């Protein structure tokens, strides 16, 4: 499995988690949106000069933009089309996976800060302490890793359960 792990695209030392595979489990919609944002940002940064040239041409123009700036528009669209490739999308996905640990550390830092602020407000206003169960649940949630692969549907039949039921039925027939 280590042979299939992708190199760290950020160029740093390989502290990050390896990419699970070239086609990992389906991600949630928000995770896919984050990957799409990285992908679009990479394409825009690759075509920054063409985009800037078109923006400079289109400045203070309204109706005449399509006529006057057609060369810059064609150059910008051609550049974006050339860089909007599946390979670039895969690179954005790998970059997203490489930054999983960084996002987890950021979430933990924010959760600790939030907890400290809540404690301060409780102390300042003389409010009662949180009950131990609520605090334990919040700490447990904070320690959870980012979920990759989404959640299974509650009503989905599970293969293991079907196999166990079939084995039980076969044993009952004997």
UniProtKB/TrEMBL annotation:
Compartments, as annotated in UniProt: Mitochondrion inner membrane
Assigned keywords, A-Z: Chaperone, Disulfide bond, Membrane, Mitochondrion, Mitochondrion inner membrane
Any one GO cellular component localisation term in the record: mitochondrial inner membrane
Region (Disordered): 1-30
A Pfam family assignment: Cmc1
Assigned protein family: Belongs to the CMC family.
PANTHER family attached to this UniProt entry: COX ASSEMBLY MITOCHONDRIAL PROTEIN (PTHR22977), COX ASSEMBLY MITOCHONDRIAL PROTEIN HOMOLOG (PTHR22977:SF5)
The protein's name in its UniProt record: COX assembly mitochondrial protein
Species in which this protein is naturally found: Colletotrichum asianum
